[in-house]
Specification:
Blueprint: E1 10-15, E2 18-20, E3 28-29, E4 34-35, E5 42-44, H1 46-63, E6 65-73, H2 78-87, E7 91-96, H3 102-114, E8 120-124, H4 135-143, E9 147-157, E10 160-167, E11 170-177, E12 180-184, H5 196-202, E13 207-210, H6 241-250
Parallel strand pairs: 1-6, 1-8, 6-7, 7-13, 8-12, 9-12
Antiparallel strand pairs: 2-5, 3-4, 9-10, 10-11
């Protein structure tokens, strides 16, 4: 655990994940049991990049510190890692494994964090390809640390975090002692675009590759399917209320 002997220096671990670019064409192969990665352009998961990573960099710039990014993935993920380094992270860690599910990913990250004394662990609120919002809470459980989910604001006051998160009807303000794990939502920070200096520096920043630990998987995938195609839009004359009521009764689906 951190000792906080130097309160002007924070060690922050930012968890990042790759995700398909939103313009990618989604398809499945091997009898719909595997995602087809051919031609897919991967990016840093936006919630990880825009909110958790940028907020970590802002904290470092304000009070000093070191920002390490970590991902569970194979060597093909290193281009995505270098993008995050170009934005400003100091160094990177890649757990050399396929991120099979949220539990497997969280355990791998937690095992690394246990022995490296981070003051703060940040994740995005979810990934745009799975939308699970599970990894942050699982990391906190594995580390036996407090977890604050979906925070939209984060301030560091000595050894205490003050956070805001949206709740039904208003904002909730939370205070928690460091170290802690936080998942970051919209409002936490503003997107940064890497400049040429950052892109060049990213090529030589340290990237540590770590062997995974053994983990019993909790989930398996039987197959994938695409959502049903959207039906055509039907335009109803405002004066024809009977037809509108009939369509709402017989065809409309509540999601």
């Amino acid at each position: 655990m951190p000792s906080f002997e130097n309160l002007g220096f924070m060690k922050i671990l930012v968890c990042i994940s790759k995700a398909p670019d939103t313009t990618s064409k989604i398809a499945f192969v091997d009898n719909n049991t595997r995602f087809d990665e051919n031609g897919v352009q991967y990016i840093v998961n936006p919630y990880d990049e825009w909110y958790s990573l940028v907020r970590a960099l802002e904290i470092k710039e304000t009070i000093g510190g070191n920002v390490t990014i970590i991902t569970v993935g194979t060597a093909t993920d290193e281009a995505v890692i270098r993008k995050a380094l170009a934005i400003g992270a100091d160094d990177a860690v890649r757990i050399d494994a396929d991120p099979t599910d949220a539990y497997y990913t969280a355990v791998q990250i937690a095992e690394y964090a246990k022995t490296n004394g981070f003051d703060l662990v940040l994740t995005g609120k979810e990934t745009i390809n799975y939308n699970g919002s599970q990894v942050g809470g699982m990391i906190a459980e594995a580390l036996d640390l407090p977890f604050i989910s979906l925070a939209s604001k984060l301030d560091v006051n000595g050894t205490t975090l003050t956070l805001e998160k949206e709740i039904v009807g208003g904002l909730q303000v939370v205070e928690v002692a460091l170290p802690a794990v936080v998942s970051c939502a919209k409002g936490m920070a503003e997107q940064r675009i890497p400049n040429m200096r950052g892109i060049m520096a990213a090529r030589t920043k340290p990237l540590q590759v770590v062997a995974p630990v053994a983990v019993d998987l909790l989930t398996s995938y039987e197959g994938y399917s695409m959502p049903a195609a959207k039906s055509a839009c039907k335009m109803i004359d405002p004066s024809n209320m009977d037809e509108l009521v009939a369509l709402l009764h017989n065809e409309a689906k509540v999601i």
